[in-house]
Design brief:
The protein is mainly alpha-helical and 118 residues long. It folds into 2 domains: 46 residues, no CATH class; 54 residues. Helix content is 63%, strand content 3%. It contains 4 helices and 2 strands, in the order ααββαα. Strands 1-2 form a two-stranded antiparallel sheet. A hairpin with a 2-residue loop joins strand 1 and strand 2. Helix 3 runs antiparallel to helix 4. The longest helix is centred in the middle third of the chain and has 25 residues. It is flat.
């Protein structure tokens, strides 16, 4: 029993070294040749124009959130679809209710104009 806890304590001590050791080695041995061009903000190969602290529209996050919701829906529906012949009526009704709730959420978002690309 004690040996199990020693192993856990060892892992708690050793785990922070995995990210810290390469970073420390890089700081000690890595080249340091800063210049103006290297310190410029770089985004996907396109040079920034104007203020670099541009705020994104909330709409992009809402699109991502809706995508994640329907992605999770697919994850929950796949096992039921794979074992459809083996599930009972209760599971079928439960999945149908799940789909109805998500469809209502999509209709609500669509009705509020969230899905309009501006």
């Amino acid at each position: 029993m004690i040996s199990d806890w020693r192993f856990i304590a060892f892992m708690v001590v050793i785990t922070p070294l995995f990210p810290a050791l390469p970073i420390g080695i890089n700081l000690l041995l890595g080249p340091r040749k800063p210049n103006y061009i290297k310190q410029q903000i770089y985004e996907c190969g396109v040079e920034t124009v104007g203020d670099t602290w541009v705020q994104f529209k909330v709409q992009y996050y809402i699109y991502a959130l809706i995508f994640v919701i329907f992605d999770i829906e697919a994850v929950f529906l796949f096992p039921i679809a794979a074992a459809y012949g083996q599930v009972g009526l209760f599971a079928v009704v439960e999945i149908a209710l799940f789909i109805v709730i998500l469809t209502a959420a999509l209709a609500y978002a669509w009705g509020r104009g969230v899905l309009k690309w501006v």
